[in-house]
Each structure stands twice: as structure tokens, then as C-alpha cells.
Write a structure and sequence with these properties.
The chain is α/β, with parallel strands linked by helices and 591 residues long. It contains 20 helices and ten strands. It folds into two domains: 311 residues, ABC transporter type 1, transmembrane domain (ABC transporter transmembrane region fold, Up-down Bundle); 208 residues, P-loop containing nucleotide triphosphate hydrolases (Rossmann fold, 3-Layer(aba) Sandwich). Helix 16 links the parallel strand 7 and strand 8. It is elongated and about 120 Å long.
């Protein structure tokens, strides 16, 4: 995608709600430019009428007062313009960041398979800062100098057309090299921003896995990788800086040449008597305004090019369409009273990143309301994939997946996911308080409801022993809690949500015996009165299920009770037999 200033049009939807403020900023900008252009005119009258020997002190004082009045007006209008434009920059940048962040949160896992979270964070921080700079400062400066430059041209044509014609010829020489250099700056700006995003992605990935990095003593290796990435970013940035420096230097040099040429011609005109001293002073200041306007416009153009690249990158995120979306006219299923019913008919699914590999193939089965179904099978059999399809993190390619009588692709995503509670193998605990983490399952829950959920998850006792109880801050990813405690927080969250369908993804596999006992008791409590699908490899958990589904290479190869499957002497019987061989069980297990 080629960067160009036209890319800034992507900001129009965010500017539109502030039309009134934009109009005020435009008025203040025009008034500030007008008072700036009025200053040379007032100075001319001061020189020609107030400084001559025949003028009275009152006339001189009035001319100085008029000059001060122009300066005061310029100060007021400039301050008003600065505040209004800065306010717009802050508001628009916040709106862009919020819109992009919210949009990213609605993307399916397919998006995150190809986009690193560090890159997204880089766009939300670095690129948004560039947009704030251009909207809140540079663009206003550019427009102000453009108006002043045009005004200076008009005044010069009116007061000294022959001089202006020669100045325009000189300035026209500036345009073509500036366009060429500007294109190079634009291209290098995009490359530079991409390299900065790469280093941010590396840092985010490593810091999120710092324990693994340190356990493999890979600190120096990762530091070297980050250093190499930042070196590439630095190289790209220096190329951009060099190109922009040449652009700015050329514009200033050409503008100075125009200024000096104007001064030279003006001096000749005064010597010949064709121009008064006041007119020369007026002309000189207008030429200075014109030259400085060109210089500032060159600087601003570089900022615009960088902001254009930043806008492109953010708009790319904002225009990304998730491959899993709610239907235009969703069908709402009745809310079940005793757990959800689930029906799968010939379900087929391939991951988008592995289109030739079948993750689930022709899976057909039925789960009645209130049943507990255990899903077992070797690693890679498709167990977690089935959970992902139920949550519609991915869309199945063929077949039907019907929840409570309605195909899930016809349900609103929010309605579908409100019916499902998930307790993962690795529970997610946010860096907030215990109360906030449990209440994540139901944001409007009362404290009494949170206490009841914690009690049901057998978490109330250990929470009460924390320094501040339910108001204890848990730290990044819940580092202050043990694995079993984090798991019970996750179970309390699911109980508080009170969904008719509960998905348990090996919720006790990584726990010690004591923690497993507590968590299993909490899970038994959570499973009451609802349909439960549980991925498990421990025989004690599987034997309690009403039905067992056995998956292998994406196929549902067996289903039935524990006794029925043992009698069939198939895959389940072989996996169950591994439970009695400690060495084999530790290597394989049921999952």
C-alpha cells in the first residue's frame, strides 16, 4: 500500500463529529494569518507617516498603538487557534485509538495468527502519537503558513507586481525537487514505522514469556535479537532523517535565495526613488513571510508524510474484517432452564493457516440438556478445536452445529457466548483485584453474588486470608496466586456468569493432588444444573461423565459410557489402560 498525504482522508470519519470545533479553529487560523499580514502594512504607515520629522508626537504614538493593537490581536487569535487545534488533536487521537482497539478486540483468532500483539500495540502508541502531532500541531501550522504565504503573494502582487513575478520564478524552482524528495521521505517513513513495530513485537513477545526466557538462560540471546531489530529500525530512521534533512535544507536555501533577491531589487528601487522606505520595509516583511511560510510548509510536509503512513497502518487495522461475524438478522434461541442442548451433524473444519490439514472431519453427535460429556483422545485429536468452534472463534466449513435448536452461525455472537462459560487449563487472571477478576464473569454483579460464586468455587477461604481479602491486588497475570488458586478464581468467574453450557478444558491437569481435590470439588459444584463438556485425561473425571466422546485425528471414533467403551476394546480402552502404567501415563495420558 503506497503512502501519500491522501491517506489522511481516513481520519475524516473521526473529524466529522467535531465540525463546530474545526470551524472555530479555521476562523481563528484565518484571523491569526490576517493579523500577521496586517503587521507589515501597519509598520509601513509607522515608517512613512510616524517617523517623518513633520509628524507630531500624537501621530507617532497612534501609529505605535496601532502596531501594538495588531500584535495583541495576533497573540489572542494565535492562542485561541493553538488551544482549539490542540484540543482537536487530543480528542481525535483518543477516538482513533479507541476505535482501533475495540475493533481489534472483535477479531477472530485468525487475525492474531498473522498479526503480533506487539505490532498492534506499536500502532496504537507510536502511530497514534504521530497522528496527534499532525492534527494537533503540524497541520494547523501548515494551514496557517499556507494562508500567510498566499496572503503575502497577494500583497506583493498588489504593492510590487514586477518584484513578485521574479520571486515566483525563483520559488517555482523549489517545487519540483521538493516533490521528488518528498516522495522519498514518504516511502522511508513507512519503512521506518514498520521496523519500529517489529522491535515492539519482539519485546512484547519476550516479556510475556520472561520465565521461559530466563529458565533457558536466553537473556543475552533475546537482548541481541532485540538489539538487532532496533538497529534495523535505527538504520531506516536515519535514512528517513537524512532524506528529510535534505528536503528541509533545500527549501530553506531556495526560500532564502528568493528573500535576498527581493531585498536586492527593493534596495535598488529605493535608491532610484521609485519606492519609499516604508514600502520597502513592507515588501521585505512580506517576502520574509513568504519565505518562512515555504520553509515551514517543507517541515510540515515531512510530518504529514509520516502521519500519512501512521494513518494507513491504523486504518489497515480498522478496515480488517473478521472472518467470524454476527449475522445481519440473528436468530435468538430460547434461554434453557436445565442446560443447553447441542447437536453436531457432519461438522468439518480446517484451520485457515493449515487449509490442507483437517482438524475435524465429519463429526456427528448429540448432547442433551443437563448432560456431562467427557471428550478424550490423543494430543492433536481436535478436542480444543471443538471448543473453539462452539465459541465461534472459528467458523466451520461444512456441516451443522446447533445450540438450543438454532445453528450457531445464525446466532448473535454476544448471545452465543453469553450461553457458554469456559474454564481453561491455563486460567487468565487480570492485573486487578480479586473482586474485579471474579466480576469479569458478570460486570453488574453485586458483592453478595461475587461472594456466593467464590464460596461455590471453594475460593472464599483462601481469598479471606489474602492481605486485603477481595480487594487484594493480584499483580500481572495473577502472579501472587498459586495455580490452584488461579483456577478457582476462574471457576468462580464461570459460576457467576451462570451459563447453561460449561466448557472445561483440562482444568485440573497441571495441579498437584491437594489443589486438584479442591478444584475438582469446585468444578463438581459448577457443573450442577447445566450441560458440561469436559476435556479430561484423568480416569476419575471421565468415569463420572454421562457420555464419553473419543476423538482421533479429527474423527469422532467412539462414544458411550465408560463401561461400554471399555467393553469395545477400542481406542478408549487402550488410553484408559495407560492409567495403570505410571511410566506410560506420564508420557501419554488420555489427552
Amino acid at each position: 500500500m503506497k503512502s501519500s498525504p491522501q491517506s489522511l482522508t481516513g481520519l475524516f470519519p473521526f473529524i466529522r463529529p467535531y465540525r463546530l470545533q474545526v470551524g472555530l479553529a479555521g476562523i481563528f487560523l484565518l484571523l491569526a494569518a490576517a493579523t500577521t499580514l496586517a503587521f507589515p502594512w501597519a509598520l509601513r504607515h509607522l515608517i512613512d507617516e510616524g517617523l517623518v520629522q513633520t509628524s507630531s508626537p500624537d501621530v507617532l504614538a497612534s501609529k505605535f498603538f496601532g502596531l501594538f493593537f495588531v500584535a495583541a490581536a495576533l497573540a489572542f487569535f494565535s492562542a485561541a487557534r493553538f488551544y482549539t487545534v490542540s484540543w482537536l488533536g487530543e480528542k481525535i487521537t483518543v477516538d482513533v485509538k479507541n476505535a482501533v482497539y475495540e475493533h481489534v478486540l472483535h477479531q477472530s483468532p485468525t487475525f492474531f495468527e498473522t498479526t503480533q500483539s506487539g505490532e498492534v500495540l506499536s500502532r496504537l502508541s507510536n502511530d497514534a502519537t504521530l497522528i496527534q502531532t499532525i492534527v494537533g500541531s503540524s497541520l494547523s501550522m501548515g494551514l496557517r503558513n499556507l494562508v500567510m504565504g498566499m496572503g503575502a503573494v497577494i500583497m506583493l502582487i498588489w504593492t510590487n507586481p514586477w518584484l513578485m513575478l521574479q520571486v515566483i520564478v525563483v520559488l517555482s524552482v523549489v517545487v519540483f525537487p521538493s516533490v521528488y524528495l518528498g516522495r522519498r521521505v514518504r516511502r522511508l517513513s513507512r519503512v521506518s514505522q514498520d521496523r519500529v513495530a517489529d522491535s515492539s513485537a519482539i519485546a512484547s513477545e519476550v516479556l510475556n514469556a520472561i520465565s521461559v526466557v530466563q529458565s533457558y538462560t536466553a537473556e543475552h540471546r533475546e537482548a541481541a535479537r532485540f538489539k538487532n531489530s532496533t538497529l534495523q529500525a535505527l538504520t531506516s530512521s536515519l535514512k528517513r532523517v537524512r532524506a528529510r534533512s535534505v528536503l528541509v535544507g533545500f527549501i530553506i536555501m531556495a526560500s532564502s535565495a528568493a528573500l535576498l533577491w527581493g531585498l536586492y531589487l527593493g534596495a535598488l528601487s529605493v535608491r532610484s526613488g521609485g519606492t519609499t522606505a516604508g514600502e520597502l520595509g513592507q515588501t521585505v516583511i512580506y517576502v520574509i513571510l513568504l519565505a518562512s511560510a515555504f520553509a515551514v510548509l517543507g517541515e510540515v510536509y515531512g510530518d504529514i508524510l509520516r502521519a500519512a503512513g501512521a494513518t494507513e497502518r491504523l486504518m489497515e487495522l480498522l478496515n480488517t474484517c473478521s472472518d467470524v461475524r454476527s449475522p445481519v438478522v440473528p436468530v435468538r434461541a430460547p434461554w434453557p432452564k436445565h442446560g443447553s442442548s447441542l447437536l453436531l451433524r457432519h461438522v468439518n473444519f480446517n484451520y485457515p493457516s493449515r487449509p490442507l490439514h483437517s482438524a475435524l472431519s465429519d463429526v456427528t453427535g448429540e448432547i442433551k440438556a443437563g448432560q456431562t460429556v467427557a471428550i478424550v483422545g490423543p494430543s492433536g485429536a481436535g478436542k480444543t478445536t471443538l471448543f473453539s468452534l462452539l465459541m465461534r472463534f472459528y467458523a466451520h466449513q461444512n456441516g451443522e452445529l446447533i445450540l438450543d435448536g438454532v445453528p450457531i452461525e445464525r446466532m448473535d455472537l454476544k448471545d452465543l457466548r453469553c450461553r457458554i462459560g469456559v474454564v481453561p487449563q491455563e486460567p487468565v487472571v487480570f492485573s486487578g483485584t480479586v473482586m474485579e477478576n471474579i466480576r469479569y464473569g458478570k460486570s453488574d454483579a453485586t458483592e453478595q453474588e461475587v461472594y456466593a460464586a467464590a464460596e461455590a468455587a471453594f475460593a472464599h477461604e483462601f481469598i479471606s486470608q489474602l492481605p486485603d481479602g477481595f480487594d487484594t491486588y493480584l499483580g500481572d497475570r495473577g502472579v501472587r496466586l498459586s495455580g490452584g488458586q488461579r483456577q478457582r478464581i476462574a471457576i468462580a468467574r464461570a459460576i457467576l456468569k451462570n451459563p447453561p453450557l460449561l466448557l472445561l478444558d483440562e482444568a485440573t491437569s497441571a495441579l498437584d493432588a491437594n489443589s486438584e481435590r479442591m478444584v475438582q470439588a469446585a468444578l463438581d459444584k459448577a457443573m450442577q444444573g447445566r450441560t458440561t463438556l469436559v476435556i479430561a485425561h484423568r480416569l476419575a473425571t471421565v468415569k463420572r461423565a454421562d457420555c464419553i466422546w473419543v476423538l482421533e485425528h479429527g474423527h469422532l471414533v467412539e462414544q458411550g459410557t465408560h463401561a461400554e467403551l471399555i467393553a469395545q476394546s477400542g481406542l478408549y480402552a487402550s488410553l484408559a489402560a495407560l492409567q495403570f502404567s505410571p511410566l506410560a501415563a506420564s508420557a501419554n495420558g488420555l489427552a
